[in-house]
């Protein structure tokens, strides 16, 4: 229960100004939040992560930068679970995603560079997959925030039992109301998987400046429980047990070498998002002494 009480802690993640998606079958014309979030996962082979994968992924970033491509993405590496990298890309709509794919295919130089980079990167990977999510504004709380100074991302995944959407909606409603009352600075973004999975999967994305925020999150459980009260906690536990089939919680670190971010992010924190290349190691000079023949 402790983890569930914390599942909406922290600030929401966004590419640009917020992470995205839209409520299922609901018009989002009145919101400025981008609606579609694509997540690509790359599972690296043993010994092929770290600097080796960073170098491979930086080739994609350089290709996009040379093309001055308008679509940006954020890359991150796992701090828990199986070694992998995530890439999150936002789109205003599915139509915008389609147009971006068509534009890449129509740019012969960029398309050729990405094909070459994919072949090189593929040698490092054990497997990869993709999923697409849509944003639930009514399940999110204060979801717009500046992410340029964030360093970590918590992803909590909840698989809702078929036919129990109503109970799940009530769970989120209760949690949201409790945090609005107990923690005025609380914010998060909620997403639902629409392609790439079996259905019924929801993600809560929480960006962190430091891992110390996780320590504080455990301490804030009491405020959360006090806001709900004893009867509210009992009802919440019952609804959660009835609606949630399983859950998973993972932690990732933003990786600037794998990220093609907007200029505003770089200007806001250039030391992180555009680190200076490492200086080449100094070459020691050696002298060879000539010896006279004996």
How would you describe this structure in keywords?
Alpha-Beta Plaits; disordered C terminus; eight-stranded antiparallel beta barrel; globular; 8 strands; alpha+beta; 294 residues
Rg of Cα set: 23 Å
Strand order of the largest sheet: 1-3-2-8-5-7-6-4
Overall SS class = alpha+beta
Low-pLDDT parts are 1-31, 287-294
Our measurement of the CA-to-CA distance between the termini, rounded to an integer number of angstroms, reads 85 Å
Tell me the number of helical segments per DSSP (H or I, 4 or more residues long). 9
- Percentage of helical residues? 25-40%
Order of helices and strands: HEHEEHHEEHEEHHEHH
Into how many domains do the coordinates divide? 1
DSSP summary, beta strand count:
8
CATH fold-level topology = Alpha-Beta Plaits
Principal-axis shape equals globular
* CATH architecture title: 2-Layer Sandwich
Kindly estimate the percentage of residues that lie in beta strands according to DSSP: 15-25%
């Amino acid at each position: 229960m402790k983890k569930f009480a914390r599942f909406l802690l922290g600030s929401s993640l966004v590419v640009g100004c917020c992470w995205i998606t839209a409520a299922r079958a609901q018009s989002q014309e009145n919101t400025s939040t981008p609606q579609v979030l694509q997540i690509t996962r790359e599972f690296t082979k043993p010994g092929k992560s770290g600097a080796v994968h960073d170098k491979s992924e930086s080739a994609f970033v350089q290709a996009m930068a040379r093309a001055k491509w308008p679509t940006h993405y954020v890359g991150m590496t796992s701090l828990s679970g199986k070694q992998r990298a995530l890439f999150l890309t936002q789109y205003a709509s599915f139509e915008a995603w389609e147009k971006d794919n068509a534009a890449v295919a129509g740019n012969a130089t960029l398309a050729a560079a990405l094909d070459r980079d994919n072949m090189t990167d593929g040698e490092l990977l054990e497997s990869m997959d993709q999923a697409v999510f849509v944003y639930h504004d009514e399940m999110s709380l204060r979801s717009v925030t500046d992410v340029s100074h964030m360093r970590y991302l918590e992803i909590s995944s909840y698989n809702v039992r078929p036919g129990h959407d109503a109970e799940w909606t009530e769970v989120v409603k209760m949690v949201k109301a409790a945090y609005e009352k107990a923690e005025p600075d609380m914010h998060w973004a909620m997403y639902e998987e629409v392609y790439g999975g079996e259905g019924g999967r929801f993600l809560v994305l929480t960006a962190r400046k430091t891992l110390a925020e996780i320590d504080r999150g455990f301490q804030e459980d009491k405020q959360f429980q006090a806001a709900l009260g004893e009867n509210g906690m009992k009802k919440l536990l019952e609804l959660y047990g009835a609606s949630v089939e399983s859950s998973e919680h993972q932690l990732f670190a933003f990786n600037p070498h794998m990220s093609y971010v907007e200029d505003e992010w770089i200007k806001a924190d250039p030391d992180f998002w555009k680190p200076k290349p490492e200086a080449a190691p100094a070459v020691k000079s050696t002298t060879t002494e000539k010896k006279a023949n004996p």
